[in-house]
Amino acid sequence: MTISFSISDEVAGIARRTAEFVRDVVIPEERACGGSVHDAPEPLRHRLQQAARDAGVFAPHVPREFGGLGLDLRGQAVVFEEAGYSLLGPLAMNCAAPDEGNTHLLHTVATAEQRERYLRPLAAGEVRSCFAMTEPAPGAGSDPRALATTATRVAGGWRIDGRKWFISGADGAAFAICMARTSGTPGDAGGATMFLVDAGTPGMKLVRNLETLDEGLFGGHSELAFDGCLVGDEQVLGEVDAGFAYAQVRLGPARLTHCMRWLGAARRARDIALERAASRSAFGRPLAELGMVQQMLADTEIDIEASRALLWRACWELDQGRPGAQHTSITKTFVSEAVGRIVDRAVQVCGALGISADLPLSRLLREVRPFRIYDGPSETHRWAIARRAVRSFT
Predict the structure, then answer these.
(1) What is the mean pLDDT of the chain?
(2) Acyl-CoA dehydrogenase/oxidase C-terminal domain location, by residue (predicted)?
(3) Rounded to whole angstroms, how far apart are CA atoms 279 and 291?
(4) pTM of this prediction?
């Protein structure tokens, strides 16, 4: 098996332009708002996205037929890492969660009519979206089979009833992709269906916006209620009862793109720590010459290189059409934890300055901690990794 990690001139050029765009345009905007955009105004998003278009880096993941740059996952890994160097970089380039994952899902599963109605404006940045699967306990969370929201057949369509929470980007989204149970009972492995629900549909209500540790996701995280929400048959995404399979179509690549973006954030923390270690002296010597600081800097370099290698390998697997579930879980688990270690070390190297608002490290620390929970907590992935490993010997 030959694995190629070569980068084309096209991808290298997009990555270079992305790095320049993030440095010159996006980071000044991030500094102005402190990286907190849960309730930021839409004009900020539109301004950043127009600047990305002007720089030729808008929508790198979107197929060319829908106005994007059409990069495969390996290309996205290079470019998204550069985008993630700023908390607002992915937003500016329209490759932030949850829209990036929804774009992939719609392109893969939606009908031609649904692509025109939902995918095209989403890809163009004209609207935002959300993915409504997670529910308050005892509903779907780490175990999606616990899905409790129901969709019942009625004349001409479906009635959706249930409650969702921690729905990222829901506030201001033009539509939701809602997972609801159309057969079976909570705990069953099948029986889920995806529905496209337009904002303003009677019966879908935003209950509240959650206050969370992180504040860097545009639109925040919300709780939604579906109470007799009626949708037509044309708003079923894919086949009825096939929703869990489609969720994997979305979640596999989405876990990797999260890793790409957060690796960029980790690199930024590393760069801040290196600058501080080289310029700050203590005990008569630069910090960079002190053994304990050197160990932290070295461990950070190891974590970055290992994260990138795992990420590129997993991207290669999916680009080749291979299942990739094992490598995706390994990558998500390792990178989410490595990113946390990298940012934490950077704070430690910078000392009191690191926990102040004078540097972005305290904001980065708050942003990356939930990554060990999003898209499956580390414990769930380790359980799945071990099960697959054991099955290979039976």
Answers:
(1) 96
(2) 242-389
(3) 16
(4) 0.96
